[in-house]
């Protein structure tokens, strides 16, 4: 086993070590603790970029902790999809962490940095694991950390939303365990590849129970992804979180989408009998409803943060419209759009946070207020983020939606899918335009409870960085789409993945 193979475990080990070290040094040497946290994010990004390059050769690499033979023990797996998600998580974490330090939001509680690192550990573990039970474990790690991050900074609104968020996820975790128990009883394994092979051999008497277990498991992923009608928890939760935390949370819903993409072809593929591609009849209608509800929410939102939260919901719906066809072309387009929509959601939350700092007492309302610092600059940043979110040229949202529309041609109901995507785009454009004109063009003489605007530009760094990445994603669309297409081909060839996970030549 060479160095690259051992490097697979690094995205889990780095934050797992950084979290307790930061916790120990934070009270006496705060700057050192912050430095450790930032260094951890930077090191994770470098490691993720190396792994992305390693995965480009198409080989699936396995890291068996404790060297236990498959299908026993904990198995980590690196393929193209894992590489994409690791780079996305590391990039977003570095931007969010830098923003929290610059705005001093990390000082609102002692445990921000350890919780942030533990959440990254859970995210990276979920993207690498080849075992359903360990997917549950890493889900719990990232969720427990997110509970603390959600409540970071305190406040009545965060407490209320946080309680609802915790309850929803406890219910989801309970259903996850029930689904795992049913699947283990039917197959005797929790290794994804091994389960996929055993599912194909289940007799007709157990096909009904298998379908129930599969639907229950996918329902948990749908809940995590905030797909309608299980989306109600997301807008009120994300809208009140600290901007840096909300920016990282933009990736949380994509963990649910990632789990669907990872588990369904590998475990419930075409050989799974009654459970073959089990969410297919339900996923597409739910995705259409999610896209409509999300962008309708953008239209009626009462604040920039709430608008950003609904934009995350809407983008998830658009993403799953492409995923639901389970074809190489649609899945490749979906993976490109996944990267774009995550960065776009983060940029919207970061811009909303900076605007809120400038507007002070008017922060909670998308309505005219007093003139604030860097108004023109922030207006341009908001316009760029809105263009990216709705999918207008020249940013990557236009390319992503164009790829999805092109890939959907020839699929059943493609006309209705085109109408949904184009109509929600129009609704989003109107919603963002109305909010932008109210905040950045109109003013009022009533200063209300507004405080003097902050005389700083440092908090613009993170939003600019996120939007610069979107521009880079657009400029590098050729190689990026080639990589996502190759990842889709790999995902829809579960036999190769199964051989690698089970150690079969």
Task: Provide structural commentary.
The chain has 505 residues and is mostly helical. The protein has a domain of 213 residues. 71% of the residues lie in helices and 2% in strands. It contains 21 helices and two strands. Strands 1-2 form a two-stranded antiparallel sheet. The longest helix is centred in the middle third of the chain and has 32 residues. The protein is globular. It starts with a helix and ends with a helix. 55% of the residues are buried.
Helix share of residues? over 70%
Number of strand elements? 2
Strand order of the largest sheet: 1-2
> Could you spell the SSE succession in H and E letters?
HHHEEHHHHHHHHHHHHHHHHHH
Low-confidence stretches: 447-453
Estimated structural class: mainly alpha
Q: State the end-to-end distance.
A: 16 Å
**Outline type:** globular
Average predicted confidence as pLDDT: 89
- Please give the largest β-sheet: 2 strands, antiparallel
Number of helices: 21
Write down the Rg.
22 Å
Strand percentage lies at under 5%
